[in-house]
Every structure is written in C-alpha cells, then in structure tokens.
C-alpha cells in the first residue's frame, strides 16, 4: 500500500499507510432513526461503529438528495454548480458539471482503487456524466432518485446498472443484500498493495417503504405498519453495514480503514422516518431537513468514543477525506479540511455555511438560509413541512403542517441554535442588526450563485430507454 508520510525517531522510522476509505451514504436516514439516539431502533452495528468512533452532532447537508451528493462529490456549494433546486429528474438534460473534478478522481490520481455502489443521482443523460466516467473503476447501482427495492424500476423503466450494463439478474432481489454482497466481493478481491476508496450509497431507508418481513417483525412494539416497515429498513441497512465491516476484519483490512457514514438529508415523516426533536423534514431548511446523522470510525482517529460538536458541512467531506488520505488539498472549493480537528477533537475551523440558495420560481425545498456562529437566518419560504414530529409508533399518523409558499426574502426568521437547537423561538424582531448583517452576508454569496439547471423533460430519454430494452440509459444529451 502506498505510503504518505513517515515519523523518524533516531534511526527508527514508523511509516503510515494510506487508509482504505469507506464513504457510506444512508438515503433519508432520520436524526432519530438510529439506536444511539433512539433505543426503539435496532442498529447494533452502526451503534458500535459510532460509539467506538466520533459522532458528529453538527454535521449539515442540503435539504434534498442531488444537491447533497453534488456537495459530497465536488466540495462545492450546489448553488455554484447549478444543482441547488430540488433533484435531477429522470428526463432532464442535467448532470454534475463535467468541468468539476470529483472526489473519486482525486482519489484515483493518488493511487486509490475506486468503486461506487448504490445511488448515483448526479445525472446520466450523457455517458460522461455516469460514475465510471467520473472517477470510479466500477459501479453497481441506479441513476435516479428512487426505485422499487425488488423490481428496480424507476418510473416506467428499469434502473440498475453494472457499470453501463442493465443488471437484470438482480430483479426480485432486495437491493441492500446485493449492494452489501458487491462491497464484500470488492473487499475480498482487493489488492492490498493499493488503498481502497468505496462510495457506498445505500437505497435504504428512502421510499418506497419496503422490506422483507423478518426485518419489520423485529419491531412488534410498533403498531403503525408504515413505521414498522421503515424501522425494518433501517435494521437491514445496519445488517448490511455489519456484514461489510466483518469482511474488512476477515481480510485483515479493518485496522487500515476509515469509515464515514452520513445521511444525505433529513427523514420524510410522510414515509415514516423521524427527525425528532429537530424541527422540520427533508425538503426544508429547518434543522430536521439539514442536520443529519453522521459519524466516523476507524484508523487515524486519536480521540474516540466522543461526540464532536464542531460545525461540518457536506462540502467539507471532499477535503477532509483527502486530508485523511494524505492527498494534496484542492483549491477553489468551498469545503474545509477538518481531518486534524476531527481526529484530535479540536475546534472546527468552520464558522459559517450556506444551507442553500435557490431563487428558482418555485423553491420547494427552501429559499435561502445561512449559519454564522450560533446564529441561523432563514429568508422567505423555509420548505415544505414544518413541525416537531414524534415517531409514528402508535396507530395514529402524525399530522403534517405544510408551509405556504411565497416568493422573496420575507419573512426573515432568526434563531440562536446554541440556545434554541430545536428552533422554537424566532428572535428576528428583537435582533434587527443581526438580521441585517446576515442578510447582507447571504447577498454576498448570491454574487457567486449560478442559475439552477432545471430544464423541461426531454422525450428523447424515453426513446433511448425503449431502445435499450426499457432500461434507463445514457445517450440522449
């Protein structure tokens, strides 16, 4: 395995090896949908990793999927790449701009073997947009936002690919099983003279709400059927991660591996996920949509078994993982390298971040928000759902309060997140100077905002899919 630095004492040199890195994204995993926060959830493998590593209490992402994944892959705020508005739809001629160098491309250049498994959702209309053309050696997964867990259809067409080939052999199989199996195969076959980078973007627990019955049966105390199934979806995710971790141990690779897990946004209570006690949901700029479950475990961490409270944003994972790998940092991105701060439990160097900026005519996931120190300012429409929703463990569904959309920057809502982490007390009227200063800061960021890429559907996408055996594929833009 490639060496990155050495420590010499007298005539003895201790050489550190580049770590293997496993970057796990759990789709729509709620703040309260994991055992170390909610004892009703059965997640022993994730709990063990988190408790033996570092739990991030202030890790933030974007309010929906494509923007967060663009941040994970680029280290750039989505409002600068045109991916700030909702998500990439099936028939849109859009992808993460090709002039942006991705995290796996940096890793590959540094000698890593790179593999992607699971959800892509960063565009596929052109072959150059797809994972094996954006830095990954291999890819097993799907291009779109969601699909059936067994048929692997996204809308009208099949959407599961082994590199560029339609992977029809997996029809009828639940995705968490074969995603984990592919990860285990890669680990077993890996040449340990090279470091390994694996991006494992699980489908679970994103809707549709589906899981083998044995997993929902793990929750006999949950009376609401949807919540019971969602809970099982989290537990099957946990089992998959446990199986992958055990394979790392069996292959003698675990002690040289760094594992990062993050959700891509908050949970959707309409699909039975839960962010309690945070306010709001996916599709919103409230903390419940953007402050997510995240932890790191493994090699290089010097202080473990802790909760890290420093601010981290999704754009930071590119430079932070490059830092962990001993890879030269990238200039011109928004991310900050937190590797030294995380591994040594030092204060975060991040003092502010943008939750999102979206001036599209219908900003369904929120218009504009910023965090500076302890202060959070939301301008205008905050997003779709508003409220504090407890888990639906009883037979009654939780009522949802939908925000009324209106254009522009008003009203302004201000919260001190240190004093009021659950956003109960809007203090904008008492602090007009802070509102003005933070509004001015947002306007400074707006100078670098590019228009959202959100074109109308292209019917050519269907034509190409039908020609490809009714499977979504590239080649129509």
UniProtKB/TrEMBL annotation:
<dbReference type="InterPro" id="IPR000917">
    <property type="entry name" value="Sulfatase_N"/>
</dbReference>
<dbReference type="GO" id="GO:0008484">
    <property type="term" value="F:sulfuric ester hydrolase activity"/>
</dbReference>
<comment type="similarity">
    <text>Belongs to the sulfatase family.</text>
</comment>
<keyword id="KW-0325">Glycoprotein</keyword>
<keyword id="KW-0732">Signal</keyword>
<keyword id="KW-0106">Calcium</keyword>
<keyword id="KW-0378">Hydrolase</keyword>
<dbReference type="InterPro" id="IPR047115">
    <property type="entry name" value="ARSB"/>
</dbReference>
<keyword id="KW-0479">Metal-binding</keyword>
<feature type="domain" description="Sulfatase N-terminal">
    <location>
        <begin position="19"/>
        <end position="327"/>
    </location>
</feature>
<dbReference type="InterPro" id="IPR017850">
    <property type="entry name" value="Alkaline_phosphatase_core_sf"/>
</dbReference>
<dbReference type="InterPro" id="IPR024607">
    <property type="entry name" value="Sulfatase_CS"/>
</dbReference>
<protein>
    <recommendedName>
        <fullName>Sulfatase N-terminal domain-containing protein</fullName>
    </recommendedName>
</protein>
<dbReference type="Pfam" id="PF00884">
    <property type="entry name" value="Sulfatase"/>
</dbReference>
<dbReference type="GO" id="GO:0046872">
    <property type="term" value="F:metal ion binding"/>
</dbReference>
<feature type="signal peptide">
    <location>
        <begin position="1"/>
        <end position="16"/>
    </location>
</feature>
